[in-house]
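REQUEST
  id: r-88c1
  op: predict_structure
  target: Aconitate hydratase A
  payload:
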Amino acid sequence: MGLRLPARTSSALRAGVPETAGKEEIPFKPARVVMQDFTGVPAVVDLAVMRDAVADLGGDPEKVNPLIPVDLVIDHSVQVDYYGIREALAMNAAREFERNRERYEFLRWGQESFDNFRVVPPATGIVHQVNLEYLAQVVQEQDGAFYPDSLVGTDSHTTMINGLGVLGWGVGGIEAEAVMLGQPIYMLLPQVVGVKLTGELPTGTTATDLVLTVVQMLRAHGVVGKFVEFYGPGLSELSLADRATLANMAPEYGATMGIFPVDEETLAYLALTGRKKAVVERVRAYMEAQGMFYHAEDRVALKDMPTAFAASLVDRFEVEDSGKKVAVELGEQGAVELNHGAVLIAAITSCTNTSNPSAMVGAGLLARNAAERGLAVPAYVKTSLAPGSRVVSRYLDAAGLTESLEALGFHTVGYGCTTCIGNSVPLPEEIAAAVADNDLVVCSVLSGNRNFEGRVHAVTKANFLASPPLVVAYALAGRATIDFEREPLGQDQEGREVFLRDIWPSQDQIRDAVARSLTPKMFEEEYGNAFSQNETWNAIPVPKGTRYAWAEESTRSSQSKAQRVLAKLGDSVTTDHISPAGAIAVGSPGGEYLTDRGVERKDWNSYGSRRGNHEVMMRGTFANIRIRNELVPGVEGGLTRHLPSGEQTTMYEAAMRYIEEGVPSIVIAGKEYGVGFEPRLGSQRSLSARRQGRNRRELRAHPPLEPDWDGHSAAAISPAKIATRWG
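RESPONSE
  id: r-88c1
  status: 200
  body:
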């Protein structure tokens, strides 16, 4: 996978000369590509379209194949329709295949038709956890030559693999496709920021607490576009799973990646997860021979990690009457009371934390202790457990903790991203109506990696990230405003107050439970037939032919076309604002499109699941329910003002009018435009932003616009000025 570099560049790399960082451009050819189904389907669509183009030009379409290994893991499509019952897993899986059958037929065709392309079926796990536990080799071998494993992925949290010492990060779809076809990624030699870890985590804290502290610190330091390297004596106190949690969150602190060294803990993890002995020995031998085996300055003392959160309800949402209570009747479950800060969703989900046995076992032990004391979760809290791989269920079963979690309503609902990607599906109508009618600020608490506005659920304005044990704790409390140090979770069977400290498991208890329940055999059995273990997937008929037979009436897969929109946005516009992956709103252009084609509301699914169809995605661009366009002040949602008529309309409808009128359109944005992922669906003829997130950089201005900011931020430019200067 090597490339010939100029002598000065290779010398600078070997010497580690800092002066070249950020200045010298280098080509990077990763060893492989990983994708999830939301962002992977468009890439496969493009490969299929390339075959059509080659055939139309008289060439051989069978020659169009990825030139390096590509793995697509289907993990983003399962939704939490059913929860709180043991049958939830099977029922949600059946609903997933019903909703996505056309997409899955297309991917089955791709799996059979393309070389170097594998698909990990649904209900196997989350892409980054599957990559960590199974796909990654740390050291690759090809034709008798050994070289470090490396990759790019079509998901920003690809960086999770950095915890294993593997170079990798998320890229845009166009970049990933170029890599698949054998092209390098050109990048500036990155600057490296070292984070020295010292000490050990105190009792009552988890790797999640460390992560959130590091995120805050590195955001303040400024590491956008840089490599972060963790090192120091504190490494010995972090398990591989803890390291993976820190690496997973690199996009949240702005870095390209957060890399850990390969050491004894790395080798132990490879052995634990069922990698063959020869693989483990190869990693040790190669890394030692290359001087890369660990025997990289901000300092973080692990003992200083925080253990609670709550004040942001007041600080951000200006909630004044925290004692306001609203009675809601929930049928057989009886009446409940809601107020500001009520936790409506408590989800143990996401590869960030479900890949960590200590965190998951800790949640199970906390649930066991709570159930033994007679504590219960309020009826209005929607609880769910979505493990990142089937191995998690295996060791929770072995530890006897599955029943404890189920006793509190944390039944397994699927093996995928679920709530983390916005697949929580609607809350009970009575709950949603009470929240809307009384303007309540209600919450979700999830063990995920992102809490962007409108991402988790449309009803929950406040969304908090927490470790799996804390998700259980907040579910028991039923509110995010609790002070765990001073307020009890409830009362036990004898009327005694029960505080969180009374039921929180010790580190020794967690370590003992993990040691007793987790074995290499579990990984070997679950991943031994990873590509064929799902019988429902295997039963899907595979379309025949080298070229894909496109269906004109399809709302899932079609040949992509360009799109243009107009918006004046502020700072920190995330990719969830640009291209939401969540639910399709009633009354939106996307919803109207599906309705016009006979798709019932219950089958709309999400924008992410329909990324293979450009018609839906054009209508979904900038359709986030919380996006704020300064052309329509005081209004949230995907609306804009058509110029010069001044008519308020949807961004999609305005874009179509501009195309019909032959008027190019532009997006104006402030700092950190495009922080996050899903870059390819927000492309414009022209884009003006003071700083774009890394995953937006593939969108080049054609031609580039050079506005005069007059030394001011984007927010200083009013809609009137936009109309005058570029309208």
